[in-house]
Amino acid sequence: MAKEKFGVAVDEEIVREVDELVDECDDLGASRSEIVEAILTAFVQSALLNH
């Protein structure tokens, strides 16, 4: 599956929360972008399944 890049602006509180997740997942080596992608993918898949 091809990936498309785009930028988003989010509240600073969300940035802090995502950065905490990055720190907690340090052993996995997950970047902020990878975590945001995983959250967004799960949300969209959930929304499509529940629609």
Report what the structure shows.
The structure is a single chain. The protein is mainly α and 51 residues long. The protein has a domain at 24-50. It has 2 helices and no strands. The chain has helices at residues 12-24, 32-49. The two termini are 23 Å apart. 0% of the residues are buried. The model has no long low-confidence stretch (mean pLDDT 92). It comes from Halomicrobium mukohataei. One of its GO terms (biological process) is regulation of DNA-templated transcription. This is Ribbon-helix-helix protein, CopG family.
Could you provide a short overview of the structure?
With 51 residues, the chain is an all-alpha fold. The protein has two helices and no strands.
Task: Give the SSE map.
Layout: H1 12-24, H2 32-49
Organism: Halomicrobium mukohataei
Protein name: Ribbon-helix-helix protein, CopG family
Number of helices: 2
Q: What's the overall average pLDDT, rounded?
A: 92
Distance between the termini: 23 Å
- Count of DSSP strands: 0
Question: Which sheet architecture does the biggest sheet show?
Answer: none
**Helix-strand topology string:** HH
* Shape, principal axes of CA atoms: globular
Task: Determine the structural class based on helices, strands and strand pairing.
Answer: mainly alpha
Radius of gyration: 12 Å
Helix content: 55-70%
Low-confidence stretches: none
- Strand-residue proportion: under 5%
Protein name: Ribbon-helix-helix protein, CopG family
Organism: Halomicrobium mukohataei
GO biological process, one term: regulation of DNA-templated transcription
